[in-house]
Each structure stands twice: as C-alpha cells, then as structure tokens.
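Page 37, continued from 36.
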C-alpha cells in the first residue's frame, strides 16, 4: 500500500495533446529569492509565485525565523524586519536541498547560522563543501558535526571568493553572504538564469549585484524592501514541449523563456521537431518521429541536467540509438530503470546512457524516484499505448496544477488516491 502522502496516477496514453498552456513561475528562481528576503530587513513582495511543496517549506522556514509571510494576489508578501537566527531542524531540511540557502543571508545579517544538512531528490551526493569553502574564503569559521549539523559563524573580512567548481547553489549562497561587503566578487560563478534572477532581486533589496558571467560583482548598499517579479520556469517549459511532442500533438506554450532554453530548443530541432517562436510563446507543431540524438549535460548555457530525464523519455521512441553523457549528477539515471518497465531499451555505463528507440512504449506500473524522473514518466506515459499507473510523491514539488493543465489540453489522467 502507498503511504498516505503519495498518490497514484492513472494515465491513458496515445492521445495527442492540443491547445495552449502557460508556463508557471520558476521554482528554482523563487527559492533562493525567498531566502534573500532575510537581507532586505523589511517588507518584500514576490510577484507571480505558486504554492509548490518546496515553496511552502521555504515559507515555513521563514516563519520560524520570525518573518511575516502571506500569500496575496498571486504572489508572496514577506516582512523580515523581526527575523532572528535559529537552527533549521531536520524535519524541514530533510525535505529539500534549498534549505541550505538560508546560511548565506543569515551570515551576512547576523554573523552566524546553523542548519542540519539538506535533503531533496536522490540524484547524487551534492555535498555542500563548496558552499563552506566560499564562506571560509570570506573569513567565516565553519564546522560540520558528526550528526550532520552545520555551524557557520564569525565576521566576514575578505572580499574575493574563488569557488572550487561551478555550482548554482554555492554561487547563490556565497552571493548572499557577500552582499554586506561592498566591492566583493565571486569568481568561477555559475551563470544560470536563476543566478541572474537572484542578482536582480538582491539589487532590488538594496545591494548592487551584477550576475550572469563567471564573475559576480557586488557593489554593496543599504538593505531595503522591494518587489521582485519571478521569471518563467524553464524546466517546466521544456517539459511542456516534450509532452506535446511525445503524444504527436501540437500546442502553444505561453511564457516560454527562449533565451534560457536555447540549448534545449536547438537539440529538439536537431532531432526533427517542428518548433516556431511566437513572441513570448513557443509553437509546437505536429512533428515526425524524432531521430536519435547525442548530447551531454552541463552548466548554463549548456544543456540543463534537469531536462535530461524528460528528453530521455522522448528518445525512448526515437529512430536509432541516442547517447547521453550526464556530466553533473552521478545518480541521474533512475528514470531509465522505470522507463524500462514500459518497454524502453537503455544501457548505463557510468555517466553515459545509451537509449535504443522502440516504436511504442506500453503502459506499466512505475514509480517516480525524484522530481524530474516523475515528470519524465508522465511524458512517457502520455505517449505510450494503454494505461500507466504512476506512483508519485515528487511531482508536486516542482509542477503546480500539472494534472489539471494536462487535462485542459486533452490528457486523460485519473488521481486514484
């Protein structure tokens, strides 16, 4: 029997999707910006936000710090005037990776922060060593206890941080920890769109931050509240494109972030997909069977790792053998095991995946092992023959109203529990 917090989705495949959908605001941009409100020391409004499970967990953490948080008119209003540092307990940190992002803003504002090690999807170790290295380079002391409690404290004295490797989370954390030090810079920084969104938010909160290149520059300033518009979710946008293609359907995806998805869109075009840019929307036209592709994941602007499982689902029915190299996470192949239950043929050699396309997938009983695995299985099930039963407890962490939106363009999905 499934635990009470899980759900069982019955998905009838083989129905071409048709219609228009709108991309939701970005979860991966919203989470660090929620953490950054700690630095504002006042009222903030985050416009265009949706109540995903991960977002609700971040909101709960803010409230435990003493912030006033309310959902209002399609956004979140946060007042961090009376925030105070305290330990983030494991009952919250164990649910999501992004909980570690409170370390940076708490350090910058109070000079101390304590948290349990974060949880989240099991797609690799994803240690926080690079985060701690950045804090230490700023002049802070760090300690990780045997039971997994992280302490960071002291006074930031240095202004230049060279991260050991390109990491989105470490870049975000060190950016926030550096905000109170005018003239600080973060070298070897990630360049993802979510980094740019955080930099823009920090600037609205009173700190002049320039991000988007391998060096983040911080001019410093005085904290203030402000309003921030959350951008479209590029991973959700890519998932919608895959869903239309998997079913042989056609549709219009409004709010498609073309600039942020150039590598993804170009790959689909290479495979034979018929796509057209239409202002802030993407038109997915009825396309022939995709041909096999070869690509690797990487830091932006390379192909995003979060879309690798979703594209893998498409390639299970492509003509020929596809080859994927997963360069970022060592355990991001769980979706291939589940797709195999539906008749997909694939082989994993370390971080290299070979997928031999078949003409048709068959409905089966499958389970989502992480957020993007769940999305990939939905895409595969929509294009499969017969009914798929999907045991899920992850999709709602990153996709808001996903089932209802799919039904609005013709999908037949029943939530059994």
């Amino acid at each position: 029997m499934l635990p009470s917090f899980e759900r069982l989705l019955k998905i009838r495949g083989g129905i071409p999707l048709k219609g228009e959908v709108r991309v939701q605001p970005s979860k991966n941009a919203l989470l660090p910006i929620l953490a950054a409100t700690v630095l504002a020391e006042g009222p903030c409004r985050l416009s265009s936000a949706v109540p995903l499970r991960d977002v609700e967990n971040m909101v709960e953490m803010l409230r435990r710090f003493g912030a006033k948080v309310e959902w209002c008119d399609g956004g979140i209003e946060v007042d961090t005037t009376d925030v105070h540092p305290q330990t983030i307990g494991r009952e919250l940190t164990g649910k999501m990776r992004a909980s570690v992002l409170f370390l940076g803003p708490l350090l910058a504002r109070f000079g101390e922060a304590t948290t349990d090690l974060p949880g989240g999807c099991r797609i690799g170790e994803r240690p926080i060593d690079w985060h701690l290295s950045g804090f230490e380079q700023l002049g802070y002391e760090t300690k990780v206890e045997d039971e997994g409690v992280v302490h960071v404290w002291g006074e930031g004295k240095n202004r230049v941080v060279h991260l050991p490797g390109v990491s989105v989370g470490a870049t975000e954390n060190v950016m926030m920890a550096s905000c109170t030090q005018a003239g600080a810079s973060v070298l070897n920084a990630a360049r993802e769109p979510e980094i740019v969104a955080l930099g823009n938010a920090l600037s609205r909160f009173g700190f002049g931050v320039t991000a988007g290149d391998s060096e983040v520059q911080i001019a410093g300033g005085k904290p203030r509240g402000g309003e921030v518009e959350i951008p479209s979710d590029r991973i959700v946008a890519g998932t919608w494109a895959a869903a239309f293609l998997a079913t042989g359907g056609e549709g219009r995806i409004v709010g498609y972030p073309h600039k942020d998805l150039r590598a993804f869109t170009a790959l689909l075009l290479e495979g034979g997909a018929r796509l057209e840019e239409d202002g802030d929307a993407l038109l997915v036209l009825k396309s022939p069977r995709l041909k096999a592709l070869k690509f690797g994941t990487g830091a932006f602007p390379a192909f995003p790792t979060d879309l690798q499982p979703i594209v893998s689902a498409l390639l299970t029915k492509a003509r020929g053998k596809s080859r994927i190299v997963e360069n970022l996470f060592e355990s991001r192949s769980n979706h291939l095991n589940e797709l195999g239950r539906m008749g997909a043929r694939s082989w994993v050699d370390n971080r290299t995946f070979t997928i031999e396309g078949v003409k048709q997938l068959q409905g089966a009983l499958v389970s989502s092992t992480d957020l993007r695995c769940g999305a990939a299985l939905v895409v595969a099930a929509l294009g499969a023959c017969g009914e798929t039963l999907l045991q899920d407890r992850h999709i709602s962490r990153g996709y808001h109203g996903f089932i209802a939106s799919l039904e609005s363009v013709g999908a037949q999905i029943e939530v059994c529990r």
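The radius of gyration is 21 Å. Flag for discussion at group meeting. The domain at 27-229 is CATH 3.65.10.10 (UDP-n-acetylglucosamine1-carboxyvinyl-transferase; Chain).
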